[in-house]
Amino acid sequence: IQLDDLKRHRLLGEGNFGTVWLVTNTKSTKTKPYALKIQYFDANDEKAADRIRKEISLMRKLHHPFVVKLINTYEEEDNITMLLSLAPGGELFDRIHYKLPNNLWDSGLGEEQGKFYCSIVADTLSFMHARGYIYRDLKPENILIGSDGYPLITDFGFTRLLKANEQAFTMCGTPNYLPPEIIKNDGHTSSADFWSFGVLLYEVVQGENPFFYEGLDQVSLFEAICTESWYPCASCSDDFDDLIQRLLEKNPAKRLGTFREKDILAHSWFADINIQELRMKRISAPWKP
């Protein structure tokens, strides 16, 4: 598919990186929609271009049913564009935080829906970790909902390959989801993803962040993450509380998943989830776009 063959229909999103458009291929008899992600940079900033090229190279290696599919790329002097599979359900964030019929807002999907989305995310992270990759930017905005209602991980700008027994020291990610070891620059491994997964899980179920509240400055947030306990969950099951406690362990060496990643999905909270059935997409999603 050539760039000139793509017709832009509407803007799906924009940010510091650039823009994402809903497009179709004018040369095809099928009107299959795609997402066109255009990332701009200064023409003289070779480092910025290399970061995008590295992300593209990584996405070409990560073929997985719950990872957004890279279809083609196009490079120009001041931008690199990715043609991606479309996830028409938008971000998981907009499923967690939603408007009620009376125009008031509510948050949180509860434990049953949380199990559906987060078991798939945990299984997909495990696939990446088994190949030596750490993701480092897990958050609801980076999980999209496909046409079948299943979640898809996207945006691999902070993902990197780690050798056995190697640690990373780059300060990266999104503040609300950072583990203590990244904040303190102690060196981090795939265990950092388990912390972020714990924050994500809490937010999907509860509708709020376990450490952040509106108006909290970043210094206080980082202090809370490194030294304070997470906000207790008033109406959650004991199994859920135990899972969160083990994932939001400040010491990465003791964090659930660090010794054996399969221990996360083997936790009693996931006991009624059949991961093989989910991988085959035989379980109906709680919501479809």
Automatic annotation (TrEMBL):
ATP binds at K37. SMART domains: S_TKc (SM00220). Residues 6-270 form the Protein kinase domain. Transmembrane segments: none annotated. The keyword Transferase applies. The keyword Lipoprotein does not apply. Keywords: ATP-binding, Kinase, Nucleotide-binding, Serine/threonine-protein kinase, Transferase. Pfam families: Pkinase. Belongs to the protein kinase superfamily. This is Kinase-like protein. It comes from Fragilariopsis cylindrus CCMP1102.
